[in-house]
Amino acid sequence: EIRIKNFSSESKSVQTKLIDLSGRIIQSQDWSDIEVNNIKIDTLSLPEGFYILQIQNESKSFSQKVQIQR
Predict the structure, then answer these.
(1) What are the mean pLDDT values of the chain's consecutive 10-residue runs (70 residues total)?
(2) pLDDT of residue 70
(3) Cα(39)–Cα(66) distance, rounded to whole angstroms?
(4) Secondary structure class of 33 (helix, strand, coil)
């Protein structure tokens, strides 16, 4: 599970994408204003490895390399 807290206090919605290193979008989800300050992305069904987590709202975008391991 990936947790993101307080990404944007002024935003009403946020979109997250989990992208594998070959550029394929593995997960994409839109989050409403109720959920935007406490995002939880389920990774149990994903194989271990490295991914790019991309988060964006109306005004900014953020990307981070993440590793899923068990």
Answers:
(1) 70 87 94 71 92 90 92
(2) 81
(3) 15
(4) coil
0.90 exceeded by the pTM?
no
Query: H/E/C letters for each residue in 4-28?
Result: EECCCCCCCCEEEEEEECCCCEEEE
Answer yes or no: are the C-beta atoms of 39 and 32 closer than 8 Å: no
What local confidence, expressed as pLDDT, does residue 57 receive? 83
User: Quick one: how many helices (H) and strands (E) in the chain?
Assistant: 0, 6
Q: How far is CA 11 from CA 32, 43, 44, 63, in A?
A: 9, 25, 28, 17
State both tokens at 54. Answer: 């991309």
The pair of structure tokens assigned to 41 is: 């992305």
Do 40 and 2 touch, CB atoms closer than 8 A?
A: yes
Return the amino acid letter for 41.
I
